[in-house]
Design brief:
With about 350 residues, the protein is of the alpha/beta class. The chain is built from 13 helices and twelve strands. Helix 3 runs antiparallel to helix 4, helix 4 packs parallel to helix 5 and helix 9 crosses helix 10.
Length: about 350
């Protein structure tokens, strides 16, 4: 079987090693990506073996992880640096902006370099949401409660990611920080006007566009713009993001098993609706039955060549070996700063 290097579905695997069902799923032509979770990690040696096994199945598959820092860090212990929540950089920024930007760039590099050293291509980062502990799911994952500070801090963080060789993914477009509900559990509705969103939440996505390789839309309805959640909305993804904003990077859906996506119907319907709306790749996690349903449903999906080209740009651009990384003064310094922020938070 000739399997394409890029395909529109990202799935997860079941445990620390590949099961036979994992292997069959990864060989399905519609699968083009894998996301790693904490349950897939015991230590670095085991992770390296798992990544190598995944690439034996599909050499060019895109491998991702959520390694933001703080409460969202899937790879911990056995040498991985404990990363602070991004809000800790915002607190530093209040008193010492210059130092905060230096540390943000260093920690962006640190996160990316450690992830890349294991053969993973991307971490879905950074969070560009503007939040003042209002959202139950964003909270201290956000850099700051003002868009200009988010622009400066996230921009520096992305500079660090790029320096390490990792593509960036800004989330959750056009901003999750102004609704209290968790879209994993319900469908949040934002009642503000488009102008209000543009003047606040959307600013980082516009200002940082040149540094963004990908975005991930929120499962939120902005009722004055469209009745559909953003990740299924041609108004948001094609009219605003692609045409008006001119963004030509990757659009990843957020996880289609989240409750915020349920309004679109069954899993097959959700996947097709997201791709039709403008997503280049859809995520289907923590539900193997649903993953198989979507993988089979997308077997004959007419995928855009432009999407494959965009996704090819998300692969790891360079990689430092683990021993070389640990001997790097840059790694030691960034690790020290990360530790200080963790202790001070």
């Amino acid at each position: 079987m000739v399997v394409p290097a890029q395909a529109p579905l990202m799935v997860d695997v079941e445990g620390l090693t590949l099961s036979e069902d994992d292997r069959l799923l990864l060989l399905t032509p519609s699968v083009g990506g894998v996301i790693i979770f904490a349950r897939n990690y015991a230590n670095r040696e085991q992770l390296l073996e798992l990544i190598a096994d995944i690439r034996t199945c599909r050499a060019n598959i895109l491998i991702a992880v959520d390694q933001e820092g703080g409460c969202v860090q899937r790879l911990q212990n056995d040498g991985f640096t404990r990363l602070p929540p991004m809000q800790s950089l915002g607190k530093l920024y209040q008193n010492n902006p210059e130092q905060a930007l230096e540390w943000a760039e260093a920690i962006g590099w640190l996160m990316a370099a450690e992830v890349l050293s294991c053969g993973i291509d991307i971490s879905f980062a950074p969070v560009l949401d503007v939040d003042a502990n209002f959202s139950t799911i964003i909270g201290n994952r956000a850099f700051y409660n003002h868009p200009n500070a988010v622009i400066h801090l996230a921009g520096a963080f992305m500079d660090g990611m790029h320096a390490a060789g990792m593509a960036t993914t800004g989330k959750h477009y056009p901003g999750h920080g102004s609704v209290s509900e968790d879209s994993h559990l319900s469908l949040p509705v934002d009642k503000r006007s488009l102008e209000a969103v543009q003047q606040h939440d959307l600013k980082p996505f516009v200002a940082l566009q040149a540094k963004l390789d990908a975005v991930m839309p929120a499962h939120i309805v902005f009722e004055q713009v469209d009745a559909l959640p953003v990740g299924f909305s041609t108004i948001w993804l094609q009219e605003h993001l692609r045409r008006q904003q001119g963004f030509d990077g990757v659009i990843f859906s957020d996880d289609l098993t989240m409750q915020g996506a349920a309004v679109m119907g069954g899993y097959r319907s959700r996947a097709v609706a997201a791709l039709d709306a403008g997503c280049d790749m859809v995520l289907l996690c923590k539900n193997r039955s649903a993953a198989w349903q979507v993988a089979e449903a997308l077997a004959d999906y007419s995928w855009q060549e432009a999407s494959a080209k965009r996704l090819s740009n998300m692969a790891s651009r360079k990689q430092m070996g683990w021993q070389q990384l640990r001997q790097s003064p840059k790694w030691l310094q960034a690790r020290h700063w990360a530790g200080q922020l963790c202790d001070d938070k």
